Amino acid sequence: MPGTELFGEEEKKEVMDVLETGVLFRYNHDVQRKGVWKAKEFEAEIAKFTGAKHALAVSSGSCAVSAMLAACGVGYGDEVIVPPFTFVATIEAVLLAGALPVFAEIDETLCLSAAGIKAVCGPKTKAVLLVHMCGAAADIDGILAVCKEKNVMLIEDTAQALGATYKGKHLGLFGKMGSFSFDFFKITTCGEGGVIISNDEALIQSAEYISDHGHSHEGDNRGMEPHHMMGTNFRIGEINAAIGLAQTRKLPKILKAQRKHKAVISERLGRIRGVTFRKQCDDGGDSATFFHLLMPDETKARTCVKLLGEAGIGVAYWYDNMYHYIKQWDHVKDLKMPYRMVAHELGLPQDLKTLAFPKSNAVMCRLISFGIRVTWTEQELNTMLDKMEVAVKKSMEKVLA
């Protein structure tokens, strides 16, 4: 992934700043840290980059989603509309909040569709947890219209789409709150980390309380500050934040390179008759972290995946993925946890063992994705595309006959 391709002296410098103070904790110890506040700098850098009024760094993207749900008042028995195609952390956060996930269909944006949301929105719906999957925007206009009509909150899980925009506005700023992941497999990384953004100061304040056991961080006497609510430990450490800070400063370079490579890939693979690409709501705003092919049918998709593997090109076939598509989520369908949750008591709103997703399946079974690297040379990219063209065309032969 791009962030891990670009580790260098910048990350080392920021980490050494922290180690030289000996303060790995993000709060307090004002004198000892000698002006080194990497978490605060990280937050400021993200706010500046996205145009958000406020940003809060936490220990993971998963914790960011949990903190957002809590800050927005999502809890016991509330229904939250979620996609069947996402990393399972989205669903876990809803269940661990005491809320109940309600699954809606996706479309060729690879994200929840406005029609899918409207079809399952009911009197108990508290929020739509929109995932901008694989680095690009969902149908923001259509989804906002449904949320307004149904009077439900929009919260954005933007874990995979840092740097992506819609009509010039960064994803994560269309709902009440938005969150990014900085884990090892994201566009920028700090090993483990997450950031919440919002233009609502009160919500960010609540999320900060929640992320640090209710500490209000007033003064430099930890344990003696006022506590306005309960919370837990979602804090990021200064070393993780230091790495995230250095990586965030590289985002313009990363996005420029990815979009350049995406243009080359689009031109080359777009020549192949019968293959289409992911639907883009704002093609120029795509972070270009992934490239997506939509084959004519499942058989051709599976054949193509096999041929690409034989050619030494690794791709994702999400339809079979154990952690990203509901088809394989037996542990979610059976609510397998070592303790009793609210969902066990109230029951899920949908029977996930029998619920069908015909529209989502029709997309997912045809979808092939692969990551776009920043450090490809022109020769490396074209050599890969030569092999891809052969594999894709061969898999299409029967279709074109």
In short:
It contains 16 helices and 12 strands.
Report on this model:
The chain has helices at 2-5, 9-21, 30-33, 38-50, 61-71, 89-96, 114-120, 140-150, 201-211, 238-248, 251-269, 298-310, 330-333, 342-346, 358-364, 378-400; strands at residues 54-58, 79-82, 100-103, 125-131, 153-157, 165-166, 169-170, 178-181, 194-198, 276-277, 290-294, 367-371. The protein is globular. With 401 residues, the chain is α/β, with parallel strands linked by helices. It has 16 helices and 12 strands.
CATH superfamily assignment of the largest domain? Type I PLP-dependent aspartate aminotransferase-like (Major domain)
Question: How would you describe the shape?
Answer: globular
The parts where pLDDT drops under 50 for at least 5 residues are none
Q: Determine the fraction of residues in helical runs and give it as a percent range.
A: 40-55%
The first-to-last residue Cα distance is 37 Å
Q: What is the number of E strands?
A: 12
Based on the coordinates given, report the CATH architecture of the largest domain: 3-Layer(aba) Sandwich
Look at the structure and give the CATH class of the largest domain: Alpha Beta
What structural category do the secondary elements indicate? alpha/beta
Order of helices and strands: HHHHEHEHEHEHEEEEEHHHEEHHHHEH
Number of contiguous helices: 16
Radius of gyration: 22 Å
Strand content: 5-15%
Q: Give me the CATH fold name of the largest domain.
A: Aspartate Aminotransferase, domain 2
Q: What number of structural domains do the residues give? A: 2
Strand order of the largest sheet: 1-9-8-5-4-2-3
Mean pLDDT: 96
